[in-house]
Every structure is written in C-alpha cells, then in structure tokens.
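A.,

Following up on our hallway conversation. Structure tokens first:
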C-alpha cells in the first residue's frame, strides 16, 4: 500500500525508521494526496485482514539538509513530532502544509497549538479528514 501510494503521488522513500518510514515529495499536495490514499487503501483492505493495519501520518514542509540520500534538519524533526501527535488512522499536518494547500479542496480541522519537543514555540496542527 505504501509503495503504491508513493509511486502514484511522486513520493520518494527516504528510509525506514524502526516501525515507520520517512518519505519526501516535491509537491505538498502530492504528500497530502499520498497520505489520504494510504489511509483509504488500508481502511478498504481492513475487512480482508485478520487484524487491521493502522498507521499514523505526520506531514510538514521545508528545506531539509540532504546527505548520503538521507534528510535532516528542522523540517524533518517537525514532521516526526507532528506524526507523534496523531493517533492510528489519522493524518496530522503542520500549519505550513495547510497554508501551502490554499485553494485545494482538502478538509482540515484545527487541533490547536501544540507544544512539540525541540521547538521553542507552539505549533498549530491540523487533522486531514481523509474519509469520503
């Protein structure tokens, strides 16, 4: 499911992070569409599995540093912290993602300002409603 969604939305798998994965996208809307496709496809397949597979997804945007095909920096750290705030089956995004999606027809719900480890100021988070 993850590989299909990444391919469909021009994503690049950067690395596996224990039980997670980091991916990058050129387009913010591609990242949001990919996240929604992952959640929808997993929900669709849940009835065919002995136990559903639930994932949480966090998105941010920025200009990370790249070294040896790996990404580093505040944008990467923020995406990780945003993901930490989501529960299984949710997609959370930092305000920068929502702001870059102005004019798109995504349904964002405010999760308020959140204190995130490693960031001095609270960060406004939004949940993406991916269910039709």
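Then the amino acids I'd put at each of the 132 positions:
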């Amino acid at each position: 499911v993850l590989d299909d969604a990444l391919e469909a939305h021009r994503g690049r798998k950067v690395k596996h992070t224990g039980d997670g994965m980091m991916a990058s996208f050129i387009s913010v809307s591609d990242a949001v569409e990919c996240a929604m496709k992952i959640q929808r496809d997993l929900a669709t397949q849940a009835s065919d599995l002995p136990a559903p597979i639930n994932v949480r997804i966090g998105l941010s945007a920025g200009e990370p540093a790249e070294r040896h095909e790996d990404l580093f920096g505040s944008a990467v750290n923020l995406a990780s912290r945003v993901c930490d705030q989501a529960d299984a089956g949710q997609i959370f995004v930092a305000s920068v993602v929502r702001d870059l999606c102005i004019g798109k027809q995504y349904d964002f719900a405010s999760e308020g300002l959140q204190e995130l480890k490693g960031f001095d100021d609270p960060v406004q988070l939004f949940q993406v409603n991916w269910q039709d």
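The two ends are 19 Å apart (CA to CA). Curious whether your intuition agrees with the design.

B.
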